[in-house]
Design goal:
It is built from nine helices and 15 strands. The chain is an alpha/beta fold. The chain has one domain: Nitrilase/N-carbamoyl-D-aminoacid amidohydrolase (4-Layer Sandwich). The longest helix is centred in the last third of the chain and has 22 residues. The protein is globular. The N and C termini lie far apart (42 Å). Bound molecules: 4-methylsulfanyl-2-ureido-butyric acid. The site of 4-methylsulfanyl-2-ureido-butyric acid has 8 residues, from loops. 4-methylsulfanyl-2-ureido-butyric acid binds next to loops. It comes from Penicillium malachiteum. It holds the Pfam family CN_hydrolase. This is CN hydrolase domain-containing protein.
Length: 344
């Protein structure tokens, strides 16, 4: 067995008035609880550190406070005073962390490019060993104009990710794992004996089979994904669809679970899917934080829409069975018939 205890660190609502310090304190509390339960990997939501600001139409200067600035000449997000304390706490507890945040990447000409990003901090290495920028940005560039329309302005505030789907290894996460090259490009490893192979997605990405598959082809064993998903469905004009709030939320939840469970199975990996939930200043987000097994079933699920730790001990050996039978990609895939998938 290759056992590792992991935690989905669900966060309840983060309101506009909540300070960065308030949120960090809540995250520390979850990390401390995780440590008491022997957790080695803690996964936080998308845009974990602030409210889900793409629901608001904001001016340039109002946007600044939601972003963490990265100056590549000085290092990455680990240098940001807003986030550094989280990694310091994780280091002291010996816990790896996935966290989503709004990245403002400074360019050499003084301009900046903004992304909806996540990083993977390795406590063993005391550094960030994985970075991802959300590829599938939902919503629109221009705000919906109809009165009362719900806004989803991720396409306005972020550039689509430019890093692709780079799997990476988490050194030291599993005891006794064989030391392997931790940053090799396009890792595929059918031995199932090395340091765990990790992939990261962000929210809407989890609905896209292509994203999972690109990771699956690299031998991914654990997929980490944080999300902020509205608890109702909207029409193209931004209005809630005509159904009861309960039915609408049930449908949103059903699609969330289908995406995570189906894609975990089809790529023979565990997935840790973590909500920011509750109602942020009256705007409801679904819960449904789940840890999913490679066979597709839910191992553990959140019970609340508050800050909540969902813990499971998983055995990465469970990935091997499917990876060496039904989903032995090298034996059964037929890429010669898949061309059109990249042509349109
Ligand atoms: N944050 C984010 O990506 N939210 C989207 C809402 C799109 S509408 C279904 C999501 O896929 O959950």
């Amino acid at each position: 067995p290759r056992l590792v205890t992991v935690a989905a660190c669900q966060l309840g609502a983060v309101h506009l008035a909540d300070s960065r310090q308030d949120v960090l304190k809540r995250m520390f509390s979850l990390l401390d609880q995780a440590s008491e339960q022997g957790v080695k990997l803690a996964v936080f939501p998308e845009l974990a550190l602030t409210t889900f600001f793409p629901r608001y139409l904001l001016k340039e200067e109002e946007l600044d406070k939601y972003f963490d600035v990265e100056d590549p000449s000085k290092g990455g997000i680990e240098q940001s005073p807003n986030v550094k304390p989280l990694f310091e706490r994780a280091k002291s507890l010996g816990i790896d962390v996935y966290v989503g945040y709004a990245e403002r990447s400074l360019q050499s000409d003084g301009s900046h490019i903004d992304y909806n990003s996540s990083v993977y901090y390795s406590a063993h290495e005391n550094k960030i060993v994985g970075k991802y920028r959300k590829v599938h940005l939902p919503g629109s560039v221009e705000p919906k104009t109809e009165p009362g329309a719900y806004q989803q302005l991720e396409k306005r505030y972020f550039r689509p990710g430019d890093l692709g789907f780079p799997a990476f290894r988490a050194p030291g996460l599993v005891e006794g794992a064989l030391k392997k090259n931790s940053q090799s490009d396009g890792i595929q490893d059918s031995t199932g004996k090395g340091d765990p192979i990790i992939g990261m997605l962000i929210c809407n990405d989890r609905r896209w089979a292509e994203a999972w598959r690109v990771y699956g082809l690299q031998g991914m064993e654990i997929l980490c994904c944080g999300y902020n998903t509205t608890a109702f469905q909207t029409t193209s004009s931004g209005h809630a669809v005509d159904m009861s709030p309960e039915d609408a939320e049930d449908l949103v939840m059903q699609h969330h679970k289908l995406s995570c469970q189906g894609n975990s199975y089809m790529n023979a990996c565990f997935s840790i899917n973590v909500a920011k939930t509750g109602a942020e200043d009256g705007n409801p987000l679904v819960g449904g934080t789940i840890i999913v097994h490679p066979l597709g079933h839910i191992i553990k699920e959140a019970k609340t829409k508050e800050d909540e730790l969902v813990v499971a001990t998983i055995d990465l050996a469970d990935c091997v069975r499917l990876k060496s039978t039904v989903f032995a990609f090298e034996k059964h895939r037929r890429p010669e018939h898949y061309h059109s998938i990249i042509e349109r």
